Structures
1.
Amino acid sequence: MTGRKRMTWFLVAILCIALFGVFSFSAADSSLAVTSNEKTLKVVNGQTATLHIGVTNDGSAEMKDITVQIDLPYKWMIQSMDPGTVSLLPGESGEFTVVLAVPASENASTHTLNVSCTSGELTSEIINIPVAVVTNPVFGYAILGCIILMIAGTVVYFRRNVRR
């Protein structure tokens, strides 16, 4: 390799390192913080649950088109999200109201929702929100009513049909 080619490669390498440093510095200068008003969530199967997700722009640049990402259990759906996206100036905060639809077929169990916010290539840290699913109390009352009817029917049957 000639001296001129070495010098060219050396300058290209320095330029690449400088550009990489600028891009990594600007990415480190941007950050999103996510919070939730609900530390734990309790929901009845077949009904909806409402989450209030807060997001803060802790960086020094404006963040545009910030959205919420939620890892949902199987068959759960996001029924609505208000607003769909937000844009925040440095130091500003915003809030998303997310309504989740829990299927009626969901058994009583505990799940964890992993929630984060994204703005372009930038993703916030993930927060975990535990969700306890309980069965609908109407089913318990219906079962109790059936048991009472069976006992009453048995008593009436034996009073009328028992020989003395």
Note: Residues 1 and 7 are 10 Å apart (CA to CA).
2.
Amino acid sequence: MVAGARVTEGVRIALRGVCKRFGDHVVLDALDLEVAPGETVAIIGPSGSGKSTLLRCANGLTSFDAGEITVGPHRLAPNGSSTGAAHEVRGLVGMVFQDFQLFPHLSALENITLAPRRVLGMPAAQASELALALLDRVGLRTRAGHWPRQLSGGQKQRVAIARALAMSPRGLLCDEITSALDPEWKSDVLAVLEALRKDGLTLLVVTHEIGFARRAADRVIVLADGRIVEQGPPAEVLDRPRTERARQFLSRVMT
């Protein structure tokens, strides 16, 4: 993606019968999920329900025990048997983590240029131009030379998003990216996600921000005990949940 260009088509993500266990604990229980190109899906649910594991499996960062995952044309198989496909998947979908995972010894600009230079072989000048354009896009061009320790939590998260975008993904997987932020910084990060939604990226967002899910998601999924217990348009799921498990969870987070 050229700096400033808009994505015209996101990537399709599909999970079929995906199971994941940690010892005797079932984290994902024969889970089925399909995300259309350009769709924004918000995943909500209680702690320990498998939300983060779902994202990590979809990006090939965590192996799974049964089922299959397809991202665009690439298929991930169980038990880590598709290492090559996992590399290709990570070229299509970026991952943004709750704890930023910025390199502390690199500036904001250097954090963003590192992967395009090393993975894509992009010349340094071109990578810097791209990084500056992406920092401008997330409202941080003037912080290009700052170290992570000099940035607020919200600024670090926006740099992390810019870093993911530097690899020209067609989708982003976002894992509770505002949960570690002070309330005043959350809106800046969520505004960046809303702009990316308009650009056409596929977004799969694990979040506790019910307002964001209501406002920006095409679909809300309630995940509990490793299963999707309810899904649908935000207004239906959040205001008129059909299942007792979804009603129970939402009654706790919306009061």
Note: The domain at 13-102+169-253 is CATH 3.40.50.300 (Rossmann fold).
3.
Amino acid sequence: MLAIERAIAVPTHGRYIIEEPTGADPWRLLVGFHGYAEAAEAQLARLQAIRLPDRWRRVSVQGLHRFYRTRTSDVVASWMTKQDRELAIGDNVSYVEAVIDDVARAGQVTCVVFAGFSQGVAMAFRAAVRSKRRVAGVIALGGDVPPELDARTLANVNAVLIGRGSADQWYGPETLASDVERLQSARVGVDVVEFEGGHEWSEEFSRAAERFLNDHQ
């Protein structure tokens, strides 16, 4: 008997963390995406290491695919696997837009910067090129630009800060060089930060992110 694989769309719930506003709207949003096997709290901590200009709010979005970390039983998440890849990309992009819409119900959002670490970098770029709001830029550390985004699509991104630790074995110098070339070919403004360290969000990168946000708000 022949087995047929099918996909079906169902409602689900996602989780995000947002800092309370320190002032009235309109707001600019710094929206973050964590790495593999992390939770929203991990990326929020990285965003909190960035001293934000006035009227910015930090939002950390957790991947929809939750699981237990084997040794600690902590609940963590990932963004996607290769199974039903295109469907998962669409789900994730719609999810991020729903998060931003939810935030905007409490006050006007004037622009967004998406910030990803490791696996979350791909999510940051995918959300940025499809966002219905003004995107001031993408902050990317330790992860590559998604392969399916061509030059025409990447051109929707205004500016990118891209970083790599010198000892990062997951995001090598060749991949960094390729990503920079792809972005520049799409006429995207690119700032590159390379620092002493591994697969980590360093203090040096946080300071670079501060300068980037001040220049692109």
Note: The mean pLDDT is 95.
